[in-house]
Structures are given as C-alpha cells and as structure tokens.
Amino acid sequence: MTVERHSILFIGEASDDTARIRDALSALSADCSIMPPESALDFLRNLDVPRHDVILIDETSSNGHVPSLLSTLKRWNGTAPDVIVLTDKTTQGAAIAGSDDQIFLPKDRCDAAAILRTARLLADRRFLAAALAKSKARYERLLQSVTDYTYTVRIENGHPVSSRHSPGCAAVTGYSPEEYESDRHLWYRMIHEADRDAVIALSDLVCAGMSPPPLEHRIIHKNGTVRWIKNTPVPGHDAAGRLSAWDGLVTDITDRKLAEEKLQQEFLHLERAKQEWEVTFDSISDPIFIHDRECRILRANRAYREAAGRPFSEIIGKRFFNVFPRLDASVMNVRLDQDNPADNQPYYVEEFAVSDLRRVFRGRVYPTTDEEGKILSCVQVLEDVTEMKQAEENMRQEMEISTNLLSLAEAATDTMDPDRLM
C-alpha cells in the first residue's frame, strides 16, 4: 500500500532540535525542509500558490513572528496549507490569540509521529469540509431548480385547523416547513395583500366541499421579493365521505408571469405605435395606398377612401385600378415584374385626370423589397396637382394674352409711324 507523503515547511531557527524533528518526519513519510522565520516571511509573502501541504511553526524559536506568519498564510483563504504550531505552556496563549484556524501542539509532549497524525487529521478534515461544501452547493442548486411543492391542510368541522408543508416550500417561498409549523398564520401573512380575498374565497370553496380551479396569486418571499404561484387544491375525504383535508400543489410561475407582463408591455407599445402610425397615415391629405404584387390593396388612408368614394370594406383586397383611379393598369406603369434591385427605386408615374372629381393626380411609387431585391409590395402616393396644373394653365394664358397685346402694340406703333404713312 502506498503511504501518502506530506510536504512540510518547518519554520524555525536552525538547531539540533529542529534538525532532529525534520529527520524524524522524513523517516515517517514526509518531505520536510527547514526555513528561518524571517526568510519564511519573505518566502510566503512572495509566493502566489502554496507549495506545501503543511506549515509547521516552532513557536519557541520563531522570535515572535508567529502572528505575522499566521496573518500572511490567511491571504490564501481556502487554498492555504494546514498549519501546526509547536508551542510551550508559557506562550501558548499568545500564539492562540493571533490565530483561529491552526492546531497547537505542546512541543515538550509530542514527537514526529504525533505531528504526522495531526497532519493527516487536518488533511481529512480539509477533505471532509470540501466534500461538505460541494454537497451543500449541489443541494442549493437542486433547491433552486425546484418550482413545485405540496402542502396539506387538515379540516375539522368545516374549518382549517393546521397545515403541513413539504420541504420544497423553502425553494418557492423562502420559509422552511418548521417555520410554517411554528407559525400557523405565516401562510396568510405571506399572501400579497391585494390577493388575500381571492385566496380566502378559494379556501371557503374547498371547505364547502367544492373543487375550485387553480388560483394564480402573488406571495411575498422571505427575501422580500414578490413571487407568483399557482395554487391547485384537491379535496380529501375520510371513510364516511366527509371533507377531512385538502392537498395543495404550489407551482412557482414567476418567470412565466414576468414573461407575460413583458409581452403585454411590448404589445401595448406596438399598439400605441400602430395607432400613432394610423393617425399620421390618415392625416396626410394626399391619397395613399399600399398594394401587393398582384396590385391588391393592403392598406389605404382616409384621403384615398374619400377619393374612391367607397368604405374600406369595399377597398381592401381589390385591385387598385378597379377602385381608384379607375384606369387601365398600364397607365400606372407598375413595374412589379422587375426584380433587379437597381430598378426598384421610387419613381413617378404619368399624370392622369379623374373626370368625376375634376382633379389631376401624379403618382409616385415606393417599392418595398426583400433581402434579394424582389418587390414585395408598393406604396403609392397620389399627389393632387390640380391647382399646380391650373396655375400653369393660367400662366400660359396670361403669357399668351401678353404676347398678343405686345403684337397689337407693335402693329399700332407701325400704323402711327409718319415715315410709313408716306
């Protein structure tokens, strides 16, 4: 059987006594080296990772450096080596006062075998502490993953008299079964004040012999946070058919509720944005409509509906050139078959007159495309250019009149010229 060898740093002044202890430890399966206290302090302070399993300090020859040595060793926290201090009766109190994690052995009553036994006991203690910490961490992880637990309420004469909660309650509520056992009103106080009436109503229904549906309500966790739970009661009856208790299943639904609240907030935000967009869309005085590749109207603003003279129910889904303006599709110059991204830029279509409205419009088309540049739909803005066209016509007429007047004036001047009369 292989004997485990300990790596021991023996801190003390070099002497026959320390050499004897070192040799005895080496003979008993230990690698032991001696280092003076001052050198050991510098060595340990400059060391990033411990190199020894055990630090053995001879307090009687440490020249008062034990407190400094112990303080230096503490900086490694959980990775610090085990520490054994050899002391005598007269200075043991002073040595203990400067430490709290070390083992102190009376130097005059221990030998190398006792030192090694102590080192092995410290190693075992360290192993057990690490195993305990690992087990505790695993238990806490398991506890955190628990989202359900059960409870039982005992009924007498139609009224609840006591309750018992399973261990899983600690993960959901923060309180242990013992805390519920010692405080029968803890559960009621834990219910969110706004939900207490609903929980009492649930209890009353069960006590009346009914089987109500699960209730979702809030509780106040022991840490002060608000949790959502689903409380599912199941009535229980005795041999005579009388209600004797009810079993309940409590499920932590906090994450689901938070996700629902987030979705609701996002929905409200989108709804507000939609309403704002519709108000803006309808406030534009020019007729605007959106159509797909088949020229079917997807959306239209109020100005378009008024220009078409139809309700939206008779507009949406219809081909726009059969609604407004009622023209041949080619007039609109729709380039839906062109999937070249370079050609899918906003463009004007030719002007057209609507005789029923006695108006003139000029269309501007804004294609919407996918990532590959293929047209998905088009936004068409029908700009009313009637007044602009009328102004152009008025200007043309005024220029024509001015030209005619100028010609008449020139003719009159020629008539009045004496040279021409002769």
Question: What does this entry look like structurally?
Answer:
The chain has 422 residues and is an alpha/beta fold. The chain is 40% helix and 26% strand. It is built from 13 helices and 15 strands. A five-stranded parallel sheet has the order 2-1-3-4-5. The termini are far apart.
Give a quick rundown of the structure:
The protein is α/β, with parallel strands linked by helices. It is built from 13 helices and 15 strands. The strands form three sheets. The chain has a five-stranded parallel β-sheet. Strands 7-6-10-9-8 form a five-stranded antiparallel β-sheet, sandwiched between helices. The chain has a five-stranded antiparallel β-sheet with strand order 12-11-15-14-13, sandwiched between helices.
Fraction of helical residues = 25-40%
Share of β-strand residues: 25-35%
Strand order across the biggest sheet?
2-1-3-4-5
Shape: elongated
Q: Give the assembly state of these chains.
A: single chain
Number of strands: 15
**Unreliable spans:** 91-100
Integer average pLDDT: 81
Helix and strand element order: EHEHEHEHEHEEHHHHEEEHEEHEEEHH
Radius of gyration: 47 Å
What structural category characterises the helix and strand content? alpha/beta
The description of the largest β-sheet is: 5 strands, parallel
Alpha carbon gap, first and last residue: 152 Å
Number of helices: 13
